[in-house]
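Subject: for your reference before the review

Hello V.,

The reviewers asked for a structural picture of the protein, and I figured it would be easier to keep everything in one thread rather than splitting it across files. Below is the amino acid sequence we used in the manuscript, unchanged from the supplementary table.
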Amino acid sequence: MEISKAELASAAAASGAAPQDLRGAEILVKALQAEGVKYIWGYPGGAVLHIYDAFYKQDTIQHVLVRHEQAAVHAADGYARATGDVGVALVTSGPGVTNAVTGIATAYMDSIPMVIITGQVPTAAIGLDAFQECDTVGITRPIVKHNFLVKDARDMAMVMKKAFHIARSGRPGPVVVDIPKDVSFNKVPYAGYPESVEMRSYNPVRKGHGGQIRKALQLLLTAKRPYIYTGGGVLLGNATSELRTLVDMLGYPVTNTLMGLGAYPATDPKFLGMLGMHGTIEANNAMQNCDVLLAVGARFDDRVIGNPKHFAQNERKIIHIDIDPSSISKRVKVDVPIVGDVKDVLTELINMVRESTVRADEKALAEWWKTIETWRSKDCLKYDRDNTAVIKPQYVIETLWNMTRDSDAYVTSDVG
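And here is what came back from the structure prediction:
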């Protein structure tokens, strides 16, 4: 079966055409084309050979051959982070799946939209300890947003539609699609890729509750020591512009978690630096001493607040905006929960601020900023430049930056 570039435009709109008999693997490729996939990272194996045959017959999706399945998933993860598109990886059964687990878990923890296609032994051999068999659905269940085992090639198109919908909507995350070898080989009638999908059990809330947003507004405008704490949800929700507008309107101090860096300009005086165990004194002291905390797309993880019991010792009102209801009050009890898309909720909050006749207490805010500047004056990131007996890590990074600042260079570091 030849799949040409001309078919890309018609792949999604072919539902009205007469059915044609295609192999499950060919339907899979049609689905990826209809979703606009440009790249797929993978490593061949026996259980996915029919899928590779289908890829060989098309020229709209570029397959990137890796040397290890973990690299395939990490590469797809990096692509998704850089572009915002769903990253796609292809691995074989058994060791192919288990090698991919670390990359899948990484994407799950960081809410990265991905679809991982895994090969599986033939359906008749599932559960019989067949060659290179593992329980893919069971192994990946704790580290995916959802997973599918395709038992019939006729379900392939709808499963792929659901997989991409789940991966990119709501709080993004990885979705695994496990395809037995016989399902990828069997021919079934194919009438086109579904144009829409409805899932009664999965319907993320986008619009925040108006009453809760008004409560948040009242708390924010009457605060004496306000603070805005933002995480990766701001970037994932494309809400950086709205965040900057809100912060500039209110004039309140703001901080980012590691995953949220870049959501607000680090050069702006209202930015107190990164939060948490690797953050600045001013960012952490403001978190501990504020009286109203607005958390946006963040999850109060242990690297940010430490022990929740100690964090709760200081009295404060907490507003938490997140699209994932399970993240709200998970580690820290909040006073005003707002479930919804960060961009939509911030837009509504901005409109309410503009319409409100109430204004922040400028005197109290000036005192709060005076306290913050006292903390900031400690210059907690400085280091001893005069000690030549040892090379400080900060000096190494600073020197490396000075050497590469005028070139197109990327400097990375591992966790340790």
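For the response letter, the relevant points are probably these. The chain has two domains: 5-190, 210-376. Residues 12-16 have pLDDT under 50 and may be disordered.

Happy to draft the paragraph if you're swamped.

O.
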